[in-house]
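Q: Can someone sanity-check these two? First one:
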Amino acid sequence: MGIWVLAGCGGEETRIEEIPGKFSGDVSAGAQENRLGGLPGEIYRSQKDSAIYWQPWTAESLKLAKDSNRLVLAVVALPQQSSFYRIFRELEKNPEVVDQINNFYVPVLIDGDAAHEIGILSAILCAEIGIGPQLPLMIWMTPDANPVAWTPLTSSQKNASTALFSQSHVMVGRTWTDDPSYVFKNSSRDQKNRRRRMLERMDNREISVDRGNDATRALRQLTSLYDPASRTFDEAGGLFPSGALDLFALGARMEAIPDSLREKCRMVAGYLLDDLISSPMFDPLDGGVFSSRRGKSWALPGFYRDSATQASIVNSLLDCFEVTGDKRALERAMSVLDFIERKYAAGNGLFTLGADSTGSTDRWLWREDEIKTILTGEEMELWMQATGMKSMGNLPSEVDPLSKYFRANSIASVKSPEEIAEGKGGDTAKARELYESARRKLLKVRDERMDQGKAGARANAVATFRVISAYASAYRITGDNDFREKAVSTLEKAKAVFSNGPELRLYEDSDPDSIFAGRAFLYSLALQASLDVAAITLDEAWLMWADDLATTTAEHFGAAEYIAECPPDVDLVGLPISDLRMLFVESTTGLLGMSGARLAALGRPFLEVLETHAVKLPMASIHRPLVHTDLLQAALIREFGITYIYGAEISAESKAALSRKPLKGVNRGPEGRNHTIRIDVGPTEILLIGPDNKPVSVKELD
């Protein structure tokens, strides 16, 4: 069979010689069709009609490869990174590439968010070739799931992905046809060495023996990364810095932390908030927020978003509003939460992950000439001022050095219409009316030119548990009982829908287990949501469910040496994969560390097999605090958190006051549940237990 490869990235085709010998054998009829139909999640739904014979990530697919003497061609993608749409379209529209993939491999598509351990493995493999995490990642594997070769598929240039595949296909193909036994032996040896290195890295981590001091050192280091003069945040990367905001807010309100550091946390949180809130990261048209930026400023977002990330941003904004008093943070949080409810509701009281295709960057940007055809003169004048648009475009040269988006504007809420009107001594009500009219017109135009997501998305457990925590935070800050009722009702439905006995699943009634069985990360989010709802309701039933979740987590993921990410009965790669640091969102160990600290304060510590790992603070967090903000929060909560213990006849007023205390660092629980110290609480009393673990009587709550 002749094989074609694309030379370079410009699409020019160059003929190469045939690969000699028999590269692959015949496969059964099951592998001669696309078998993604019916699988939930945007990755699988988007490719179910592809001409590529995609198979799911199952033992059966690996067996197809073994029986046919073929390699597995696995492609790992994340639904939150919409570049995968363009890359898959590029592969599919090239007949030669489709033919090569279908006739030489068993192609397997993997959602790295659903199979969380494979997402982490992708980052590990990228590190082995000296690059940061890049997805989609194409991995050639033996039928034993041992990686042979891998390359990230770039979306930076037209036809770059097909060129990368074709070139790699030739090299891997020659090696396989020359000596398949060598490929098996070499990849097996590499996998054993990889397993050894991973265990050694975990064993050799330097762990803090003084969590309190080391956590505050790391917090101080994090505050020093922000430069208020240049308004830059060193090492922040491109993701929305929710973790940093969370940590600053926690540090600002923990009274046991030195006052000077608390004030520094509050100040930096305020600076960072100001940068973000007035930037195009927040969409003034529909109220949503974007997950990442392009370049080193917030001026040009990466135009993709998902409900889970947006819900975590809501929490960050609300906590920062509490410590800074910046009302814009509250306004943005409520706007984003409203957007989540409108955009990602699944129809059964739960939430989808979203992450649908949203069109190219050009479709998100605006030019003055275009605006003139849509808005009236008054609307346009106000809109240009409110959003920071300029006739020559507002994109800084550092984010668009080649002027690809000449005269284009990304829009932001730079000034409110009321501020503009007041500055000119005008009518604020009319200014608001003009602004809303312009917003509705432009949103309608943008929606018409966007690739709309397909209907039929199913409720996702990760997204739903995130939104529950956002509801809990919204109630705590605003006191609006509607948010508390939404948090409770959504958690009740989530528990019913996503539970499979004592276990959790990513989607309702979802198979196969190797893709959709709950990972440790999902359990950590469910634990957080149940503790958040328990905190705002003082309903012990949710503490009991948190206990049950913690027990199941220990049984499924509490390996002797580490917290495993994947349930052992569905693990197809056999590597000691543990989610130890923040890649895109919090790590499993960080989330479990926070929940473990909260449960321990209420006399409900994790089982020893889990507690041993959940309390660890690596010394690396001091030097790289941005990728360990979750572990630092866990350490601060455990070392400096306070706990309220209340009696059986707590008054409605005191109960309401307790329910609105911070979710992190301020625990609350009923009398008789704390076994770490002796407490004698009167039926109407409330006791405050300080960081020194000493009870102090409290008569009234603020």
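And here is the second, same format, sequence then tokens:
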Amino acid sequence: MSLFGHDVLLIGVMAILAGCGLIYEYLLSHYAGRVLGSVESAIYAMIGTMIVAMGIGAFLARWFKDPFTAFAWLESLIALLGMSSILIIASIIALTYTLPHTLSSLYNLPPDSLLDGRPLQQLQEFARFLPYIFGLILGILIGMEIPLIARIRQQVYGRFLENNAGTIYGADYIGAGVGAAIWVMIMLALPIMQAAAWTALFNIVAGLIFLWRYHPYVRFARLLLVCHILLLGVFTVILLNGTAWMKDLSNVLYKDKVIYSESTKYQHVVITERLSRTQATPINDLFLNGRLQFSSVDEQIYHTMLVYPAMLASNRHDKVLIIGGGDGLALRDVLKWPVQNATLIDLDGQLLSLFGLQGQAFEARPEITSKLVQLNQNALNSSRAEVIVADAFLEVESMLDRGEQFDTIIIDLPDPNHPDLNKLYSDYFYNHVRQLLAPDGALAIQSTSPYHAKSAFISIAKTVKQAGFEHVEQYQQNIPSFGQWGWTIATRTGQSASARIASAEHLPVASNWVSKKYLLSSFAFPNRFFDNNKDIEVNRLGSGVLYDYYRQAWQTEDELYKN
């Protein structure tokens, strides 16, 4: 082979491996975000960990005297760890969560007695940080690639190469760029284990190409060939079974029986089911990215408190806008009122399809959808409902351009637990929403827990006020599945929402749960609850203030429970 041929092969292999390395980094970051809950922090921490580890690996590469043999073995290890590390992490996490039950059964403890001592909590906490440990190991191995292949290239040429490092790093950067593009365009849409397996296949193929061309320089070449063949077998097994195994392992983390578990383009959706002696039908809970969104046993309380105050405070009910609420439950309660048209905007078409929206290009399990449609009373397909699958941030701007206006607006988004959601809780977004609201209308916003995340709760109200609403109030109620929960309600002009509710003679739409007196009582808060209001900041677009308040609150809460 000519020197040019050697260069094409070595630089090509380096570019492929750089792309694989970057995808492994993203895969572990993505999974760490799911496991640890704080997505942004987990991603940044993982990337930082792996960059430092690659630096360590570059230093350690000098210990290997035979770069050909070291590089061949290195690719085998990276491929094996790359496609199996997430599965190993999930298995260990699942083991730590099932261990208390196993020990309770082993020692024949009563069913209501569960071992949850400090050692078991520490074991679970350690398991949750395993992504960083595997990231460190994988980063060290990836960091060895550039120094080793640079030495191989120099030995092939038989002389010192002045631009050797520049050439190798150039291939590395370009390969990483291609890897990033593949991640965004292809890998994000795949189940995480399939993405890991396909990435590892490129590592295996690159290793086989290297072994084929340079086997005379590689010790134990035959053994390495057998290892690569075995790795192809592992790849096949993980590709075919990895996703199912991950589902089974993830399901261990939920207390109740998991009847549905799928990842959409935007979130991981889990539905659980349990039987209760006090309920005639099974109880279903919805989790998005591991966080409870509703429980069928008490969701009526939450959705009544979200919908009724805003509807009662609005002068008319002809046109209603719901932002979020892809489960159709808020829409169900809105349609109990004399509404001519209710528009719902949600980003996740797959979630909407799961909850019964017809005409979507997604397959949902009929038996699951049937349960959910019964819960939301098929609201998503009502003749009075219009469902728009879009980013609400952009769709609201389009509505303003079209001159649309609504009598009531209800925002039923998940908690601000991800940076991507932060913009939908910003002063910029609320200002656009204000312009969509009729002057005599009312806006209601799901506003997280005033008890567990007080600063985040108050920040939402201050942000709405900053957006130009004349009257901004907050109210709260206890939801058994969530604990104390809160909402923000605002009006553009005239009386405040609570004053409008107080002046109403009766509820135009009967409710089994709320009364006028009950609604007004929810506006009461503990003494001095708002005393430090002035210290809490407005969530401006791009600031991330609300996300930080929310993350800090729940991290503190977790630490309190652990102690």
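A (reply): Looked at the second one. Confidence is low (pLDDT under 50) at residues 558-563. The CA atoms of residues 471 and 496 lie 5 Å apart.
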